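Can you give me the bound-state structure? Components:
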Amino acid sequence: MRFAVPVFPGSNCDIDCEKAITTVLGEPVDFVWHTQRDLDQYDAIIVPGGFSYGDYLRAGALARFSPVMEGVVKAASEGKLVLGICNGFQILQEAGLLPGAMRVNDHLKFRCDIQPLTVVNNSLAFTQDYRRDEGIQLPIAHGEGNFYCDEVTLKELEQNGQIVFRYVGSNPNGSVEDIAGVSNREGNVLGLMPHPERAIVEWMGSQDGAKMFTSMLRYWEEKIGAA
Amino acid sequence: MYKATITVRLKTSVLDPQGSAVKGSLHSLGFAAVTDVRIGKTMEVWISAPGSTEAGEKVEEMCQKLLANPVIETYDYELEGA
Amino acid sequence: MYKATITVRLKTSVLDPQGSAVKGSLHSLGFAAVTDVRIGKTMEVWISAPGSTEAGEKVEEMCQKLLANPVIETYDYELEGA
Amino acid sequence: MQPNQNVMGTSTVMEPTPEEIRDRKLYSELGLTPAEFEQVEKHLGRLPNWTELGIYSVMWSEHCSYKNSKPLLKRLPVDGPRVLQGPGEGAGVIDIGDGQAVVFKIESHNHPTAVEPFQGAATGVGGIIRDVFSMGARPVALLNSLRFGPLESPRVRYLLEQAVAGIAHYGNVVGIPTVGGEVEFDATYEGNPLVNAMCVGIINHEDIQQGVAKGVDNPVIYVGASTGRDGIHGAIFASEELSEASEEKRPSVQAGDPFMEKLLLEACLELVQKGILLGIQDMGAAGLTCSSAEMTAKGGVGLDLYLDDVPQREEGMSPYEIMLSESQERMLLVVEEGREAEVKEVLDKWELPSAVVGRVTEGDRYRIFHQRECVADIPVKTLVDDAPINYRQGEEPLSFREETAASYMEELTGVDPTEALQRVLAAPSLASKRWVYQQYDSMVRTSTAVRPGSDAAVIVLDGLDKGLAMSVDGNSRYVKLDPHVGGATAVAEAARNVVCAGARPLAITDCLNFGNPEKPDVFWQLENAIDGMGEACRQLGTPVVGGNVSLYNETKGSAIHPTPVVGMVGLVESRDHITTQSFQQEGDVLLLLGANFGELGGSELQQQVLGMISGRPPQLDLAAEKALQSAVLHLIQAGNVSSAHDLSTGGLAVAIAESAFAKGLGARIDVETDLTVIPYLFGESQSRVLLSVPKEFAKEAMAMVEKQGVTCSRIGEVSGEQLSIWINGVEVVSEQVSSLQTIWEEAIPCAMNASLTN
Ligand SMILES: Nc1ncnc2c1ncn2[C@@H]1O[C@H](COP(=O)(O)OP(=O)(O)O)[C@@H](O)[C@H]1O
Ligand SMILES: [Mg+2]
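Here's the bound-state model for the whole set.
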């Protein structure tokens, strides 16, 4: 399974994503510079965290116009797996691949912590190795993770099972309905504020992120096997 | 040369965390008479265009494409010769 | 009840990296005619006061104390009955 | 070629003529003394023009030349078997084996923070990051040491809020984890807060760079943010009279752009990897002037600089302004002639402005050209090597003798121990700093094994079993009461912290924050603190590989507490050795290593109860310290330690409580002692560590420690959810861990919730 990690000016979790995939799955990963349009050779794309273009204007707003995003949009439309983590989530939202928008955290401060979450939907390609309603711990590190969508959209998300993760305990940013991660309607694009790539081995304080990557690999292997 | 002053605001239906926090701070500084605060962005864009119609069109387009996020924001602008 | 619309801008001598980044993006989106972009804040403050003079004084004071940072920012405001 | 003696007319800003400068003593506006001005005249063989004078004034400032501190800094040990680069470059370099080295340095940004806390603190972080990657190293961790006034003041709360946000913003955006630091609150810093930032990087030996210009005709390349009128030398002499410069054009606060820094970092490291660079130096204090002059002097060459080619953000900047601007996120590179295109390709990829702005020349002239005129022509050595040095005399203040007689024991020993514990835990200097470090991304780069909240942070090295432990420390109260002991203690405590994390201390970087050195008592503090630090460094085998001096920290004529801050880096040989301060399991035995003398001078309890400090700080026996550290490290490496926590501010009681908090595990302490309860629990005697060890190892561990000549006593065990302390058969403290933890965790957030104002 070939992974692409697009790199924008200001991405800073790109290497962490690569390390996670190599460590957990041992599958090949390429960094793809933001000026490259073509992502056809990849099976999955991980849009990494960081501060693309300094998060100026709005987080993700400037990166979403990079040429590489054309490849990301195409991959998403072809049903390939696209995972946006933190700033990657924000970029996918700005690009219209995921619903809602981010506001600054309700306490106005950047917040870094290890956060309890619950897996609301474990039937996605990204979450099938988790149990339904499983309590997990993932690191968070963001200043603009306060997810917003209007009432109508929220209903749709609930009905379609697009709410994938919720914060448990105290909500670290004020997001609507404690939402921590959402998918697109088709389920092949996932965005989440927490960082699964920062929780893959014991010394990191949690290993709960590893299953997201194993889920993705299993999905792909089954798909290839079926084909 | 024209100067567009663009104001981008959160939609009124969207809770404004910054506005609420600033309101709270103003209250604790003794400005009890403040009933609401909303915070938005001001963008000054200098643009060369043959006329104000063209300049306006350009500004409109850049607001829609980039400067405001229609999911949560609204915008308006004023144009002046500069 | 009054509504003050306060505009807070970076002093022109202070680096505005956000403005530069947005200008760059506008250029690469094809808005080559944009020569400069500066980004500031708009704050709408609703305040109850017996008259516009009192409201203006309050607004002036909150700008100085909290809303603007005089070391790097300038501010101005408009007041309207609301 | 003679420089234009009068740049008036070529610049928008009216500048005084050389004669005016002399006759009206305008040099004093730039901080030069009459004697120094005479020296400049002698070096040039004529009167300097305004630009030249500006260049001399910044190069001869304390900040660049260390003219007041240099003779003292010479007393610090800088050598050791692992030292690859000592003081003198962007940052120090220490060998860590496997062909790798650790690169680190600390720097202050005190004054800018007092003026504009967000940008001031942020640009402090930016500067120290550049110091590290200008060595060719990949920055992997940040730490910071902060000093603020009491949180009762709204202005102080504003300063802290903004400074922390600025530090967080910069490090978070660049993507370097901020893994540690310290914060102390004391009235002495009310008008003069301290922000010291430290950066740690990793490098392969062969990639180590130098800030040097070499090879005649080689190009000097400017890269990074364009130059504006940021933070130009504060002395705006009589500008009303001589220039039309409007308020808007006045030299302004430096503002940082961490996004630009990230691009600059990646681009520079890519150039290092390609092996293209001959020399690289960041433009920090005194900007283009300091970087170019130092590189030139170090290379034993000359330099021609063409200011029209310098990327500029503002219009009509004068040579003086371009040379002295402190715009951030800029680097100067020297490469071989003919490789400009290769360099530009990399810089363009990262979308960085760049330009060739000069050439290395034969000889020793430092020449600046602007609008086709030579506006400065200076023998470069006179800027760097011939900077004046002040040999000052310190004088022991009278109060120092008087202090010894101070008596406070009686008042303190009467305090109820539970109340004392609650008060000390609620003191902002001691309370949880979560409110601060929660704003820092401490995990980016996925190498952080011990996050903020333990004695020292630990990061692991990719692909290797080892890691690095790091800590910044300094207790200004001790230094105030006795600079020599206090200076030594800062080093000892930093080393102890690193040892408790399972590391062998390697070396330090230090930041000396003091008052006005022209005052004999301040100079005495500086001198003694340095001697104390030097002695500790020698004893503990941790050389000083770099640092920074920040003098003139005063408000209204009164100096801050002398505040040397020590940044220590240690090597964790195996990930198995990584240890934290938190109790791990019920039933573990608590061992206290080191002797307790019940010393309360300068203690947190004294400050809390009496509202002031007096007496002598805890004494420090460096031989005992060394033995203690080696015993602790030995035990940890043997695999027999569950937790290790050094005893510092707040003494034993606080150490036990802090160890209990992380996992909510209580302790039962039962001891016999000759001391009374308060000095026993809250005395801050040095060279002590609290260990928890599995029951089955307890005997063996005690024997091992005692064999190394270190006092060791079994004081209790990890148990339940209560903190229960029995002394000489009486239960003196009995509290729920959770209720103590609430006090400790809420103190700073509660204080910060009140209003702020700028
Ligand atoms: N307190 C100190 N202890 C040891 N070395 C110091 C101290 N202060 C400064 N130095 C060293 O002196 C050299 C010059 O410092 P400095 O001019 O501050 O460098 P920079 O220009 O990077 O700030 C540096 O190598 C620095 O490490
Ligand atoms: Mg400690």
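A couple of observations. The CA atoms of residues 10 and 29 of chain B lie 25 Å apart. Chain B has one domain: 2-81.
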